[in-house]
Write a structure and sequence with these properties.
Elements: E1 3-6, H1 21-26, E2 30-33, E3 54-63, E4 71-78, E5 86-88, H2 93-96, E6 100-105, E7 111-117, H3 122-130, E8 137-142, E9 148-154
Antiparallel strand pairs: 1-5, 1-9, 2-3, 3-4, 6-7, 6-8, 8-9
């Protein structure tokens, strides 16, 4: 069995790119100028932004389901990101360098199972969660701050 990790579609954020800080603030969004490596994980390209790059910090509904688990949280998006990450059978470095909460979600939007994983232990946990036929997909969250990282589907 294999899996596919997909970054967020950039088109939903494109109208925000280039807005003034005041215009962003009206939408409860802030612009961050990255000063340290590994401080801003982009949810489109699935890489850590480099010092000198800019990211938008915004509230994003990552689980728009009709269940008690409906959820939204803060995420970083690289300003100007155009191509979403999508890879089969590969966990990107941005995820491997952080502890992840992997949440197995059923077709009704409820969490069926969840585990914590880091580094080389992430892939085996993904595969083990997908052994459960009730799990339709997995949401990965950065465990320390609880932010949504990426959706993981069977490939």
């Amino acid at each position: 069995m294999s899996y596919r990790i997909t970054g967020l579609e950039p088109d939903q954020f494109t109208p925000l790119f280039g807005l003034s800080d005041a215009e962003l603030a009206e939408q409860h969004i802030t612009r961050h100028h990255v000063t340290e490596p590994h401080a801003c994980p982009d949810r489109v390209t699935m890489v850590d932004l480099e010092p000198g790059e800019t990211a938008l910090l915004l509230n994003y509904e990552h689980l728009p389901v009709d269940s008690p688990y409906r959820s939204r949280h803060a995420i970083y998006v690289k300003e100007g990101a155009t191509t979403p990450y999508t890879q089969t059978g590969e966990v990107p470095d941005v995820m491997q360098r952080r502890t992840l909460a992997l949440r197995g979600i059923d077709s009704g939007g409820s969490i069926v199972d969840a585990v914590l994983a880091t580094g080389d232990g992430i892939e085996p946990q993904i595969l083990q969660l997908f052994e459960n036929p009730d799990i339709a997909y997995i949401h990965a969250h950065y465990a320390q701050r609880g932010c949504f990282s990426a959706r993981i589907d069977r490939a």
